[in-house]
Amino acid sequence: MSLSFLYPLAWLGAVSVAVPIWLHLKRRTENNLVAFSAMRFLDDEPIARARPLWPRNWWLLLIRCLAVLLLTMACAWPYVPGVHEAVIRESRVYILDNTLSHQWRQGMLRARDEIADALENADPGMQLAVVELTATPQVVVPFGQPLDQAVRRVRELKPAAQRGSYRAAFRTAAGLLEQSLGVKRTIVFSSDSQANQWRDDVQTIPFLNGIDVRLPRIEVTQQDNVSIELPQLRRFVVQENMLIQCAVTVRAHGSTRPVKVAIEANGRQVVAQQFQFSPGQQTLTVLAEWQSPADEWLRGSVVCESEMDELPADNRAFFSLPPVTEGRAGMLVDSVFLRTALSPDVMRGRWLMQPLQTDQADDSIEDLDAVCLESRFLESRVVRELVLDSLNTGRGVVLLVNHMSTVVNGFLRELGVRMDPQATLLTDDARFRFVVREHPLFAGFDADLLRDVGSVRVQRYFRTLGSEGVPLLYSKTGDALMLDVPGSTGRLLVLGFAMESPDTNWPFQSSFVPFIDQCLQYVRSVVEPQTAFTPGEACIWTLPKSKDVREVVLRSAAGREVVRAAVVDDLARFRIPDDPGLYEMSYDAESTIQHMLQVNPPPAESELTFVKQPPQLDAWMQHSVPGGGVAAEADRDSVLALTKSEILEQQIWWWLMFCGLLALFTETVWIALRRGLK
Amino acid sequence: MHSQVGKANLLQRCDPKSLAALAGVGLKARYLVEGFLSGLHRSPFHGVSVEFSEYRDYHPGDDLRHLDWRLYARSDRLYVKRYTQDTNLRTYLIVDTSGSMAYAGDRAWGTKLEVASAVAAALASLMLRQNDAVGLLTMPTGDAAGEFVQPSQKPSQFATLLQHFDGLAADGGPRLAQLLNYAGRVMHRRSLVVCLSDLLEPAAELSTAFRELSFLGHECVVLQVLDRDELEFPFRDAGVFQDLEDGRKRMVNPANARQKYMQRFQEFMAQHEALLRTLEIPHCVIRSDSDPCAMLSRFLVTRKKRP
To answer: What's phi and psi for A68, nearest 5 deg?
Structure first.
């Protein structure tokens, strides 16, 4: 029977055996030492060393030494392999890569079956565990699980479209091996060894100490693939029509071939067209536009097909758009054109305008999303406070400067805009010199609208002398006519001209109403939560404090409930479903769709480039241990990695403790009896 | 009857346990003196320094205080009284501080050095009460010159002596003979030399030193301080015995060694007693476990009866 110790260093405590011996001898000497004065009358008598009590003291000494030795052994955590236990020669952890890229040529299924076969044919001297590499690596089969159960669990695994961290999986496997019994420790990495995965995990402290790593055999380092990235969609109003603009990026990895792109929205195919990549071109952007009702959810998907496509799982991307929510805006304008543009007939379904009071504070402004006013109303203190209050509470303000006075100018300075109090007049060509088309305000304008904006003339305006804002429109003379002013919670747009006929001809242009609408939409303080996720991703969903929600429910497109998460402190923590698709989010028992989550394959998984021998793995290995596994093997001879609970289950530990304490008790009683007899 | 009462008081007041409990030589000495005086009414040292010797004719310049006016009234002649000694008695206390004096048995009320110091201090107090001058001679370890306190009869002398007694420490090898030789060099007038020691030194060396002192005209008294363990050797358990003077150890089985020890010790005592008897030096053994007052009184009464 072999005996090993978990903490052999504790044997240094055996040195303390010398302590009772020393005390024993020292006490004996001290007890019998007599300092005497008349030594001249005494002779030396060596015979006196042989004392009658000496053998009895030897027993006492032996008991003391035995107590120390037994307690030292117990502190060293002894472990005796049982009779029925097999000697563990090797502990092995399989990492099964179940990321999207590993679905290439059924790689995951083949690896899964290989691991299951290995488990079935496992040697009794081997300890096996399986870690599934997903978004969050998880231990599918821990050490010590019965083999039939382990095989069944492995065979139940299905390919997933997630992306997980190689490093996290290796750390999980190393953590398992830390608690393993095997003399040799091995990690078998069943993966496609995707190149960009290794690149993501370069910076780390070495953590693979004395562990051998078996990498997969990579025969092909790159494969052709076509994938679709998350489509970008937005609603847009042109005249009376509510349009959907969609931008789809098709990415080609490796050689390129013609690709067929099909867009389906609300059960209707809106685009089905074949595109050709130019030589050297890797990405292709498909723009589509179609009409869609504003009051219903938009849900659809984009599918691409190509001949050179090794990974069909990433050829589909899902998208959704919420229905348009009618906004509420306050209005303080004299311009007839503005009042017309903001009238319910024009803005129905998009904006509900509310005329504001200038002489007294209005409590109803708390429900407003934005305020549109002319600078003439800033003469009123109530209006100035209304503007400041709106900006500080996150509401947007669209300010048209049609009037300038000392009060107005001072207030504009307070907002961070310095303007010339004198109006500037242009007689000749008064069209815009430059329009910032990249700004979200104009990004939705198509070519016709932009052309229309280019024909707008502004003859009278107030020149901007300096501002912290971003100019969006420039006059013919280079003056900034429109500013996007930051610095407050709400957004502020300042136009240096009035929408009146002598000042500008914009109200007569077709882009006037869309421009006003876009201005209000831009300053509207609506922060849409992130709804695009990848499969298996951990999600922390923040709910508005105004809503009393206890649970968040996710349902698939088929209406099946897939997630139900409790809300704690306005936060719901759940895991995004493994399958790509659209998932409806609702609160508690309500059936109203609050949000639509778009779960699409991670784009990085589409890059089918593989490495045979990743250099990053060397950085993870402990190079301070020469020979890696060999050194570890030597260590394992003396130290068995067991948990304390496992050791405490062994009776030898308890017997050692019991005998040690018994010896101490015996010694104490013995000494007490001797003293009593004396 | 009176002596019976005095003895009872003496035994009652000089309890060795009380002596052991008292801290410091000064307290012990005062305790001893008080106990001693309650048992004796006359000092044995009185009379030596005030003995009338003769008359002589007055010469101009003589101190008029010494004129015998009564004789002048009767004979109408001037005579001056002369005494055997002009000054009071000078006493030197010699305290042995060899390492063996550090021994204290289980029943002793102090180490032998503490006993010697207390007895010496008590004697000094007695001397000073009758206006005798008292000095001190000791020899600390490594100090070849010894420690010498000039005799004085001032009342503050007792405090000076107590300071020295408190500073004494028993250490090192035998040095009584050396100390006696040193005393012979520093004492220029005839004096009383009270030697307090255990005399655990070769008798031959001590003999030479005492003879030299006697030759110089000093009167010597030996108070030998011994412990009960030295006198009776009551040890039973075998063990390691360590010499207090040189630190050497030897294994001793008392059961076997006791007889030889007692024989050697008695020979040693007999040798010293013979020597001191030959030199007419009074000798008294003071046991550190017994009442020193009783021993002192016996010794001093014996001395007083001397011619």
So the answer is: -65, -45
> Residue A466 and residue A447: Cα distance in Å, rounded?
31
Q: Quick count: other Cβ atoms within 10 Å of Cβ B225?
A: 29
Q: Which two tokens stand for residue A505?
A: 């001809």
Judged by a CB distance cut-off of 8 A, whether residue B259 touches chain A is: no
| Tens digit of each residue's pLDDT (9 = 90 or more) over A408-442 | 999 999 888 888 888 888 877 788 888 888 888 88
Nearest CB partner across the interface for B243, out of A32, A39, A51? A39
Cα–chain center distance at A458: 49
Size of interface A-B (CB pairs under 8 A): 85
Interface check for B236 against chain A (CB to CB < 8 A): the answer is no
**Sign of the dihedral defined by the CA atoms of residues A516, A517, A522, A526, in that order:** positive
A445: phi then psi, degrees, rounded to nearest 5:
-75, 130
Interface test with A, best of B96, B243, B260 (most A CBs within 10 A): B243
* Residue whose tokens read 């498909």: A286
Q: What is the mean pLDDT of residues A30-57?
A: 65
**How many CB atoms are closer than 10 A to CB A20?**
19
pLDDT tens, position by position, B251-289: 888 888 889 999 999 999 998 898 888 888 888 888 888
Residue A277 to residues A247, A285, B15, Cα–Cα distance (Å)? 17, 10, 125
A291 class by beta-carbon count within 10 Å (0-12 exposed, 13-18 middle, 19+ buried): exposed
- Name every chain A residue with its beta carbon within 8 A of the beta carbon of B244: 35-37, 39
Domains (ranges, CATH) in chain B? 10-33+89-305 (3.40.50.410), 46-84 (no CATH)
Q: Give the C-alpha separation, A623 to A210, whole Å.
A: 9
| Count of beta carbons in the 10 Å neighbourhood of residue A212 | 18
Confidence band, pLDDT 50/70/90 cuts, at residue A56: low
Given a cut of 70, whether residue B50 has pLDDT beyond it is: no
Confirm or reject contact between B245 and chain A (CB < 8 A).
Answer: yes
Q: How far apart are CA A666 and CA A660, in angstroms?
A: 10
Task: Say yes or no: B101 contacts chain A, CB-CB below 8 A.
Answer: yes
Copy the structure tokens of residue A104. Answer: 């290439």
Q: Is B272 on the interface with A (CB under 8 A)?
A: no
Question: Residue B1 has what pLDDT?
Answer: 33
The single-letter code of the amino acid at A339 is R
CB A397 within 8 Å of CB A390:
yes
Region A534-551: what's the mean pLDDT? 84
For the entire predicted model, the pTM comes to 0.49
ipTM confidence score: 0.74
The highest-confidence range among A33-42, A126-135, A337-346, by mean pLDDT, is A126-135
Closest CA to B100 of B268, B257, B225: B225
Task: Give yes or no for residue A263 having a pLDDT over 50.
Answer: yes
In the structure encoding, which two tokens stand for residue B11, read together?
């035994």
Q: Is B145 helix (H, G, I), strand (E, B) or coil?
A: coil
Q: Which residue of B has its CA nearest to A37?
A: B100
Residue A202 has pLDDT above 70, yes or no: no
Q: Where are the alpha helices (DSSP H) in B62-202?
A: 69-75, 112-129, 157-167, 176-186
More confident residue, A425 or B45: A425
Of A200-204, A341-345, A575-579, B201-205, give the lowest mean pLDDT range: A200-204
Q: What's the CA gap between B172 and B98, in Å, rounded?
A: 5
Per-residue burial over A308-322, b if 16 or more Cβ lie within 10 Å, else e, is: bbbbebbbbbbbbbe
Q: What tokens appear for A62 in the block? A: 């032996």
Mutate to test the interface with A, among B171, B253, B259, B260 (most CBs of A within 10 A): B253
Chain A residues inside the 8 Å CB shell of B256? 45
Please tell me the number of Cα atoms within 13 Å of A671 on its side-chain side: 11
Pick the closest to residue B115 from B32, B39, B45 (CA basis): B32
